[in-house]
Amino acid sequence: MTTWLNMSLQDGASPIMEQLIFFHDHTLMIMLMIITTVMYMMTALPWNKHTSRFMLEGQLIETTWTIAPAIILVFIAMPSLRLLYLMDEIHNPTMTLKAVGHQWYWSYEYSDFTKLEFDSYMIPQEENQASTFRLLDTDNRIVLPMNSPIRLVVTAADVLHSWTIPSLGVKTDATPGRLNQTSFSINHPGILYGQCSEICGANHSFMPITIESVSANHFINWVSSLSE
After folding, report:
1. Where does the Cytochrome oxidase subunit II copper A binding domain start and stop, copy by copy (predicted)?
2. Considering Cα of 9, then 11, then 16, then 18, what sign does the dihedral take?
């Protein structure tokens, strides 16, 4: 999760998020190169004495400053398109999780299991403990196995919501009457936090999402305990 005075992205908890962070740094380096070059030229221009009133055209420099931006855009577009296709791909999911947005809480259904569903509310401030995070912890956490492709189906029961976990690189709109689909895979155990990222009403900021990533054996035991 994010921390105080954190100026960068959260640490990636999924392969897609790690690739997004790499693409962010890659694009930032290209922007830094462009800004440095332009700033140097603007700074050097007032002291440049190489002027000629007889030079009416410069075809070489015009060709250069036309082709160079096109090449730079290719270096940005190719990894961007690759990431877009990777984020849309659904790889033989191990299980399916359905998230339904309400005003103002989330409901979850484990579609592969019989009658495994629950509502997830934010823990009230007066019930917070030293180990819980204010406005982020929920009474019922989503328990998911790590290193397993998860298919997420998102919808809403009333107004627009948005199911978002920044450290997974997942942000999917929840639209009433429509199912949106995405997928992710968590690559380490731990607790991941997110919130509704759509302005959905007065209590919009009180719709947290909490995922507990566990091993496959722990997940099977958790499902068995709820089925009893």
Report:
1. 92-225
2. positive
